[in-house]
């Protein structure tokens, strides 16, 4: 069979770090190459985590850097100059493309079949970055559904019903096979969507579903068509946020920026205690940060906050309708803390959980929302 390369991107955040450890421990026979895209503007804890991972994994992590040879101090500064000082935003996320995706695409350039492992958790509802290159296939080991959306679309399309039913008869050994075949034979429609069909089949038989998908892939040009077997086909693990922190705590430790720190704020004449932390890795000035995270940066990394302020000198701002200089005013900081604490208390009451976590907790959790690949 054709040699297939296995790669795993490490952003410096919790999910990708835990995935690297999980894959090494669970599937030690897979020869995985680890890489990281360095923007030059990460927190020092991010670099420390990568160093610890290299020791723990016993493998070198290849560092990919955009704009090599540029006279600018960092890759971000290089591209900021090219964009005329225009800061990235949720609607113009040039930093993701230039400093993360482009270096990755360059790294895997060619026709060699590649399996890319992505650390999206089982409690997240998103797909993540999928390369459009035909020689790259993404796999999601933390989810019940380890397959990417494009694969599921091809498997469950109505014209394949008979073929998929035949594969189930061959590869599924569950007593629920009659019910499974009923689901397989029900065509997709506005009343029975692809996601509903996928989720129902997974609930009935995860391993059977994976075996069928893997057998189907043998009829395609996907990278997994080039291998005789794939151990994740037998995977039934679903890992969520708590599992990720457990893996880190039992190995390299979680980065300090995930550890909640106390702050004090006055509410209705009473001093109250709240907790804040950074919800993501990635650039210290990431525009996806919540305002409480900007306050965290101001109070815990003042020099980095002031550096972020300097980037607003050309009139562009990291946030809509507010500059960092305005955010750093004492009254504004108190208001942000007050709003954050009250929101946390509402969330705690709503979910009846003692664990205070922000409703926007890591919109990937790995760098900016699309930086992790």
Describe this structure in words.
This protein is α/β, with parallel strands linked by helices and 373 residues long. It folds into 3 domains: 5-147 and 237-249, Rossmann fold, CATH 3.40.50.620; 148-236, no CATH class; 257-351, no CATH class. It contains 14 helices and 7 strands. It has helices spanning 14-26, 44-57, 75-82, 94-107, 149-156, 161-171, 177-185, 194-204, 206-217, 241-249, 291-300, 302-310, 324-327, 330-351; strands at 5-9, 32-38, 61-65, 114-117, 136-139, 261-267, 270-276. The strands form 2 sheets. A 5-stranded parallel sheet has the order 3-2-1-4-5, with helices on both faces.
Offer a few descriptive terms.
373 residues; alpha/beta; Rossmann fold; 3 domains; five-stranded parallel sheet; two-stranded antiparallel sheet; 14 helices; 7 strands; 41% helix; globular
The fourth-level CATH homologous superfamily of the largest domain is: HUPs
Provide the domain count.
Answer: 3
Number of helices: 14
N-to-C SSE string, H for helix and E for strand: EHEHEHHEEHHHHHHEEHHHH
- State the helicity in percent bands: 40-55%
Biggest beta sheet summary: 5 strands, parallel
Beta-strand residue percentage: 5-15%
Mean pLDDT: 91
Question: What is this entry, summarized?
Answer:
With 373 residues, the chain is an alpha/beta fold. It has helices at residues 14-26, 44-57, 75-82, 94-107, 149-156, 161-171, 177-185, 194-204, 206-217, 241-249, 291-300, 302-310, 324-327, 330-351; strands at residues 5-9, 32-38, 61-65, 114-117, 136-139, 261-267, 270-276.
């Amino acid at each position: 069979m054709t040699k297939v390369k296995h790669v795993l991107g490490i952003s410096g955040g919790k999910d990708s770090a835990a995935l690297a450890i999980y894959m090494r421990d669970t599937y030690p026979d897979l020869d995985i190459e680890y890489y990281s895209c360095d923007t030059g503007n990460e927190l020092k804890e991010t670099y420390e985590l990568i160093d610890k991972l290299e020791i723990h994994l016993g493998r070198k992590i290849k560092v990919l850097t955009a704009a090599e040879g540029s006279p600018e101090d960092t890759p971000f500064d290089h591209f900021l100059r090219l964009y005329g000082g225009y800061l990235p935003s949720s609607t113009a996320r040039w930093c993701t493309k230039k400093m993360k995706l482009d270096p990755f695409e360059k790294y895997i350039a060619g026709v060699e079949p590649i399996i890319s492992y992505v650390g999206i958790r089982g409690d997240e509802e998103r797909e993540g970055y999928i390369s459009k290159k035909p020689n790259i296939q993404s796999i999601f080991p933390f989810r019940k559904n380890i397959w990417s959306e494009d694969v599921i679309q091809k498997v469950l399309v109505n014209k394949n019903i008979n073929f998929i039913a035949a594969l189930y008869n061959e590869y599924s050994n569950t007593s629920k096979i009659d019910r499974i075949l009923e689901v397989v034979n029900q065509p997709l429609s506005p009343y029975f969507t692809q996601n509903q069909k996928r989720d129902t089949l997974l609930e009935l038989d995860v391993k059977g579903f994976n075996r069928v998908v893997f057998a189907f892939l043998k009829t395609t040009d996907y990278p997994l068509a080039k291998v005789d077997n794939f151990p994740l086909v037998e995977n039934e693990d679903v890992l969520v946020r708590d599992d990720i922190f457990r893996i880190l705590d039992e190995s390299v430790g979680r980065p300090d920026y995930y550890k909640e720190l106390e702050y004090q704020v006055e509410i209705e004449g009473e001093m109250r205690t709240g907790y804040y932390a950074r919800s993501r890795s990635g650039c210290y000035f990431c525009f996806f940060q919540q305002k409480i995270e900007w306050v965290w940066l101001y109070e815990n990394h003042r020099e980095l906050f002031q550096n972020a302020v300097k980037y607003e000198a050309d009139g562009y701002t990291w946030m809509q309708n507010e500059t960092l200089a305005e955010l750093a005013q004492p009254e504004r900081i108190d208001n942000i803390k007050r709003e954050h604490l009250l929101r946390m208390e509402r969330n705690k009451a709503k979910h009846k959980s003692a664990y205070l976590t922000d409703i926007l907790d890591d919109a990937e959790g790995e760098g900016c929302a699309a930086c992790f690949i």
